[in-house]
Write a structure and sequence with these properties.
The complex is a heterodimer of chains A (about 220) and B (about 90). Chain A has about 220 residues and is mostly helical. Chain A is built from 9 helices and no strands. Chain B has a single domain (about 10-85), classed as Arc Repressor Mutant, subunit A. Chain B is about 70% helix and about 0% strand. Chain B has helices at about 10-15, 20, 30-40, 40-60, 70-85. The longest helix of chain B has 20 residues, at about 70-85. Chain B is elongated, with a radius of gyration of 24 Å. The model of chain B has no long low-confidence stretch (mean pLDDT about 90). The chains are: A mainly alpha (about 220), B mainly alpha (about 90). At the A-B interface, α2, α3, α6, α7 and α9 of A face α1, α2, α4 and α5 of B.
Chain lengths: ~220, ~90
């Protein structure tokens, strides 16, 4: 099986050029859904993003013989997606979706300040009520229901936070890969990722508390 | 973190730095401050565990393949490309 992108990329590329359908299917399995998520940042809706990604796959195939390997195959593929999605977004006069360029400090982020003792009081900045242990609950967190909770929390995040946590924590991209893709600074990316994780943690904590109290 | 020469962090500062801590992006000095706090604060230790479990849960969402009909459509495009290429 093709599994590790770093080691199998050359083999994958050779197989693809040789017209091996399994190689193409492996790439589709690996990247298609992420490509759609990336395209969705630039275009209006999911159906349009699907169209853009289909065009991008055609671009990948028609360009594969010219691909010189100066960047990673993955980087090259996502550049094709991004370029096509941007072009489509402009045509739709979707004033390119952002926000992507704006500051990240214009909104509150991080943990709710009321979770900590206020300034001026004794033990300012300490937990008002200390977080409880999730130990023993790890198994529950990987079950279907908890994963749904996490998925929903991610879906409800502001666009850029959703994008960063999806690429970094779901897809396992490196911070540099995400920075290139989203054109955000290292600091901004970290802030966005932190805010996203905080909200998902909160959603999981609420879920676990409800379960402990026997509610649904 | 902007602690200058301060010698300790409080729980709120630790919570703010938790992503950098988990992703190993802190300077050795800041990391040491966090570790020292973690060593004596049960609440923050739980908080760290919660965050790590959160990241693991999110990572478990990976691996969604496209729906079968989408994949079939793309494989159709591939076959067409392959045929045209063979002729060209």
């Amino acid at each position: 099986m093709l599994s590790d992108p770093a080691t199998d990329e050359a083999a994958l590329l050779a197989a693809l050029r040789a017209g091996d359908e399994r190689a193409f299917a492996a790439l589709v399995d690996r990247y298609h859904e992420t490509m759609v998520r990336v395209a969705q940042m630039y275009v209006a809706d999911r159906p349009t993003a699907e169209e853009v990604v289909q065009e991008a796959w055609l671009g990948v195939l028609s360009g594969i013989d010219r691909f010189e390997g100066r960047s990673a195959l993955k980087t090259w593929i996502f550049r094709i997606v991004t370029n096509r999605a941007k072009t489509r977004g402009k045509r739709e006069k979707r004033t390119v979706s952002f926000s992507m360029l704006g500051p990240v400090d214009d909104e509150q982020g991080g943990e709710d300040p009321t979770m900590f003792r206020p300034e001026g009081q004794e033990w300012a900045g300490a937990w008002a009520a200390a977080p409880e242990s999730w130990l023993g609950l790890e198994e529950r967190l990987l079950q279907h229901e908890a994963r749904k909770v996490a998925e929903r929390a991610i879906a409800e995040l502001p666009e850029r936070q959703r994008m960063v946590i999806t690429l970094r924590d779901v897809e396992g991209w490196t911070s540099d890969e995400v920075r290139n893709e989203m054109a955000v600074s290292k600091t901004n990316q970290r802030v966005l990722l932190h805010r996203a994780r905080v909200k998902v943690r909160q959603a999981l904590d609420d879920y676990l508390a409800r379960r402990e109290n026997g509610e649904r | 973190m902007n602690h200058g020469h301060e010698e300790h962090v409080n729980c709120r500062e630790l919570a703010d730095a938790i992503t950098e801590y988990i992703d190993d992006e802190l300077t050795p000095q800041d990391r040491q401050l966090i570790d020292r706090h973690l060593g004596m604060c049960g609440g923050c230790k739980n908080y760290l565990e919660q965050m790590e479990a959160t990241v693991a849960t999110v990572a478990s969402l990976r691996g969604s393949s496209p729906p079968p009909e989408t994949k079939q459509k793309l494989l159709g495009l591939f076959r067409k490309w392959k045929n045209e290429r063979g002729e060209g």
